[in-house]
Amino acid sequence: MVSSKVFFGSINHGKIAQFASLANKLDVIIDRLDFSTLTKKDKVAVKLHLGFTDGAQTIPPFYVRRVVKRIKDTGAYPYLTDNPSAVYNAAERGYTQETCGCPIIPISGIKELYGYETEINYRNVDKMNMAGVLHDSDALVNLSHVKSQNNVGYAAALKNLGVGGYNGDARFSKIHGIFNTVPAWDSSKCTPEHALKLAESCPYGCIRYDKGRHSLSLSRGQCYNTNCMECIKADDNVGSLKMEAEGFETFQEIIAIGTKKILERYDKDKIFHINFLMDMTPTCDCMGVVQPQIIPDIGVVGSRDIVAVEQASIDLIGKEELLVDKVPPYFKHLNPDKKLHPFERLYGKLKSPYNATKYAEKHGLGTRNYELIEILPPSETINMKATHVYERGPSFA
Ligand code: SF4
Known about the structure:
By secondary structure, the chain is an alpha/beta fold. Helix content is 30%, strand content 19%.
């Protein structure tokens, strides 16, 4: 069976020494990914999320700078890129040309008008505007902060491209509207009184009923599905409401399709994916607030295969315990089953993180079979001679 290599650097170390630290492991992961396939003067888009207002739990400039330096060492021209708002105030969160080592440019122009119409042909979405910077670059380094996420349960490399790689009109209405293409409610089975009962049954306000139009909408983005099911209980004996996988998985599938269109813009040897499993939060970097960390730090994984790097990330998180005492109280239906993936415990089985790679593999983006190669594991570095000289006095003395 074909498998892809995924290089893993653990946050854990075997010695207090620079060679054993995550910073050095990132350097070695880059060695193993082999940036030498970049050529002089290649224009390299480093796509990452730069956060939003106070949402600063993104990839620290310290690591970003290291990646940028290694790209520059090849003679290529890197630049960081993200949506215009995130770029405009990136300095508030520590990202500047001085700190990161390269320019920071808006992915789709200052008014989100720099984009290219791209065929999507999925459900009601025929076309979306691919962000111009990703369309026009020669190479791509996909740097992703891994976290949980309310729409899809898990977000990292695929969502960084499949949502973050498209202009505002596609991101906000087409991609986020895709849930609505699968009906959840049968109006013919439901009286207005029963519909109002359904709306009132949801503790999260996900169900809205318009009596004048006899129209009920379900906001899947905020729904905790199998962890909750209060509305389905309220619908007992009527059966007008459906809580099924198809409606929830549309979001992951459009991400896979959108990502594929972006990756097709590049030669295969010009694409690199690096996921940071650090400071993992319950939801998006774009929320604009500091959030609690709900999974212990794990480290960094890198691969040339986007499906493999995502599968390895999801599996590594699956081995960790959810930090239950850090889960915010507005998760009213946290699943107590410790055998579930921690992100399913947060958002329900219909938002399983494994849907991300299921659809990415289905659309031919790579393979879920991977070989995890740990770089400088603690069991190895504990036996290595430490050469690091750490601070013992004033630096400028
Ligand atoms: S499953 Fe729960 S969260 Fe989802 S719509 Fe029903 S009541 Fe609301």
